[in-house]
Amino acid sequence: MALTREQMAMRVARELEDGFYVNLGIGIPTLVANYIPDGIDVMLQSENGLLGMGRYPTEAEVDPDMINAGKETVTARPGAAIFSSGESFAMIRGGHVDLTVLGAFEVDQNGNIASWMIPGKLIKGMGGAMDLVAGAENIICTMTHASKHGESKLLESCNLPLTGAGCINRVLTDLAYLEIKDGAFHLKERAPGVSVEEIKSLTAGKLVVPDHVPEMTFEA
Amino acid sequence: MALTREQMAMRVARELEDGFYVNLGIGIPTLVANYIPDGIDVMLQSENGLLGMGRYPTEAEVDPDMINAGKETVTARPGAAIFSSGESFAMIRGGHVDLTVLGAFEVDQNGNIASWMIPGKLIKGMGGAMDLVAGAENIICTMTHASKHGESKLLESCNLPLTGAGCINRVLTDLAYLEIKDGAFHLKERAPGVSVEEIKSLTAGKLVVPDHVPEMTFEA
Amino acid sequence: MAGFDKRVYSYEEAMDGIESGMTVIAGGFGLCGIPENLIAEIKRRGVKDLTIWSNNCGVDGFGLGLLLEDKQISRIHASYVGENALFEKQMLNDEIEVILTPQGTLAEKMRAGGAGIPAFYTATGYGTPIGEGKEVREFNGRHCILEESVVGDFAIVKGWKADRYGNVVYRDTAQNFNPMAATAGKITVVEVEEIVEPGELKPDQIHTPGIYVDRLIQGTFEKRIEKRTVREG
Amino acid sequence: MAGFDKRVYSYEEAMDGIESGMTVIAGGFGLCGIPENLIAEIKRRGVKDLTIWSNNCGVDGFGLGLLLEDKQISRIHASYVGENALFEKQMLNDEIEVILTPQGTLAEKMRAGGAGIPAFYTATGYGTPIGEGKEVREFNGRHCILEESVVGDFAIVKGWKADRYGNVVYRDTAQNFNPMAATAGKITVVEVEEIVEPGELKPDQIHTPGIYVDRLIQGTFEKRIEKRTVREG
Predict the structure, then answer these.
(1) CATH 3.40.1080.10 fits A5-208, yes or no
(2) DSSP result, chain C
(3) What pLDDT does A220 receive?
(4) Is D134 on the interface with B (CB under 8 A)?
(5) Mind telling me which Gene3D superfamilies this protein's record contains (chains A, B) (predicted)?
(6) Domains detected in chain C
(7) Reported ipTM
(8) CA nearest to B55 within chain D
């Protein structure tokens, strides 16, 4: 069974370490915040200038001057810092964020990522994604393994215009958890009930499969 | 009679305009702050990160966290801003300071300035001088017109290593006030009792002398 | 004696001198911390052929989106231009030129412009369409592209409090692009919610020192919320 | 669970891992806002062959001047190195290499290093000995030189207050180079006068966000004054 969006977020959350500064993109990455393991404290960075993003506000707390990079109203946790966009991207570009989680249309075996533009479709812009992938040393891409039509999104070489070159080292799809190194996807884990063969058939890029590929487990 | 240091400062102070942000170098430039004309308000910038430098502190006000670029204890005037060295030089480099006054060893007819290094002598460093001359559009150099041995310091071409190239447009010496443009010094005013001939004889660079060169006047 | 009193008392005076064909740098992120009334004044004046530098272009009918209604913007440098139907239409009809710029590069271009740094290298955008045609150079084993900075004819900025010398403090995430924009205008106009006496703001807690600010006006703000997300509380 | 608690409780722990041959970036201007106790700890450890980036080199017997006594510094990037007899002696004897750097360029190199900008162009130093051997390029009619940024093995910083997450506030002109230095260390160590609870510092009034800070220690400071100038009062 392919992972649900929530399971994908849960699996990514296991990569969090205590004391990590983390930037979570829009979509599944945002859900990761709901599954931070017990005993682990992470600080969420929002690229519009907030380090230490808190929960959504109550109705009474809503403040138009307090939003996140998705333009949602948010709160700041105690000990948060708020700063300019220039400072925020100094942080990001300078490699000070420990982990970035973001979605993608395609990734390839050389760590290239395409996530912002589909030629012929309306382009809304890259926002901070290009800065994030260029600045972070530790990036997890969350995406479906293949399109609805069964076309792989884990490629030998990205077809779409890139967001960043050679910058992705981990991918979590609905079918598998993989690492990218030495020009190949390395299969690390598979979704419960998903066979190695299925993953192989849906991975267009070079795939390295070890003898044993553990199945992910999720508590009920 | 050559101008005294105080008279030089007084003359420079006449170039101040209401609302000017001004950076004053060490020495005679510092004295300019004592002669700000009535009805004119200027804000002094100190490159260690202070805009709105105030008077020296009283004994009771002395604060080791409050110094100027000359490392002297100072105060901040109401409405001052204090910031980092990075921000301070962003201001300077970005051309936001209206007027910079600084001393020099030599200037030349092309606006080059040498003020920081005499080869063979101990070098203490340029501090912020190179940034100031590169960033300001409006710079007055204060200096003696010639050395004690009668060697001109207003040259065709600077002999000493430069602080900045083509950046000086006004010079106040103890003998004259001059503008630099089109590859020449233009004599604008002479010190009281100093003849045009004396200025000519002590100016090694190209000197343009108008028909009438007014004498500076100072109230007693 | 005007001295350092940057206050003006009408939006007309605040935007005096803006002309068609000029470049305007705007603070704000989404609809947060945008110079609402300065934008409205630009609309009122009807100047055209503007080049805008701003992270977003507002929404239909609010923020910079207002300037689309009469086609006042010819060109915009932005990182994200969604949430705006009129914008999409003008883009598809080639009525507006969009220079998409990574958000951090956009912020740095403004900061560098204000700081007298004409150009800088960054790894952001290398190997992507953004890097095409730009000089590439390797530093410490990483490919970087050369990006040039920007200075605008006007910068329009939204602050929270300021003293009359133009020392500005921003509030929470309404800060965003405003401090960079404030440094990068030949004429920088700041609108704020409150003007206080010099000395009321702590000198070492000022976000934008007054040296960057040419005109200051106190206004009232709608502060529209783009995505109201709440929890039970 | 350590989480974001950056506190350490001894200077030994604060400077753990510093080794001979390393590059250290130091905040401070003259003797103002210098990390006194971190410098003293480096002296105590006796590590040698250090490369220092700092505006000044302290004075005889205080600040970075302490590290000259046992010849711990091989190389220093600074804008001004006066006020220090021992320094002059070592410089004249070629016992220390001095790379004089314009003050603003020095600040920008640290800021750029921390911000992931590997190099930038500036007009500062063009046509002077500082520009020799550096690439020259013209932007908007002005000649500029290419300057590369710096990241140090350690950055040592003096703050005023911090919370235990490492969010730092500086006081008055003791800010100077400290915020830039704080961003540019692989390991950034900050010593402060007071550590407060998270939430006590206003989020939008923090000078150095905790993400830059690896270790935080509370100390007591001599705060020596270099030039005591007073008026009758």
Answers:
(1) yes
(2) --TT--B-SSHHHHTTT--TT-EEEE--BTTBT--HHHHHHHHHHT--SEEEE-S---BTTBGGGHHHHTT-EEEEEES---S-HHHHHHHHTTSSEEEE--HHHHHHHHHHHHTT--EEEESTTTTSGGGTTS-EEEETTEEEEEEE---EEEEEEE-SEEETT--EE--GGG-TTHHHHHHSEEEEEEEESEEE-TTSS-GGG-SB-GGG-SEEEE-------SB------
(3) 61
(4) no
(5) Glutaconate Coenzyme A-transferase (3.40.1080.10)
(6) 8-217 (3.40.1080.10)
(7) 0.97
(8) D231
